[in-house]
Amino acid sequence: MFDILPPSLKSLAIRSRVNYAPHPYVWMGPAASRSTGLGLESEGKEMPLDELPEWKEGLVKTLPLVWRNPGTGELHLQCHPSGIQELVSLHFRTDSL
């Protein structure tokens, strides 16, 4: 999938991180999945964070969107779309270079 992205989207993907919801399967329980199974319908039905079982901020997973295959060295998109709470792009300042 990564290979077919245009260069500008490859750059964005490389700089992006995926913030997963705490207790992702509990969080997404009230929501509806897309018919493709790739993510949730955006209807605001996810369980509010303050109603989830106890969780700690430092234990919630934030992972890269792009991973390097250790066997081939190639880059690949890798995420679990239904548990994603937020996609964050890291911005790099170029004015100080």
Short description:
This protein is of the alpha+beta class. The protein contains 2 helices and 5 strands. The strands form 2 sheets. Strands 2-1-5 form a 3-stranded antiparallel sheet.
Could you characterize what this model shows?
The chain is an alpha+beta fold and 97 residues long. The chain has one domain. 12% of the residues lie in helices and 21% in strands. The protein contains 2 helices and 5 strands; from the N terminus they run αβαββββ. The strands form 2 sheets. Strands 2-1-5 form a 3-stranded antiparallel sheet. β3 and β4 form a beta hairpin. The C terminus is likely disordered.
Largest sheet: 3 strands, antiparallel
Query: Beta-strand level of the residues, as a percent range?
Result: 15-25%
Tell me the total number of β-strands: 5
Number of domains: 1
List the strand order in the largest sheet.
Answer: 2-1-5
Report the order of strands and helices.
HEHEEEE
Topology, element by element:
Layout: H1 7-14, E1 16-20, H2 24-27, E2 62-64, E3 66-68, E4 75-77, E5 84-89
Antiparallel strand pairs: 1-2, 1-5, 3-4
Please supply descriptive tags for the structure shown above:
3-stranded antiparallel sheet; 97 residues; alpha+beta; two-stranded antiparallel ribbon
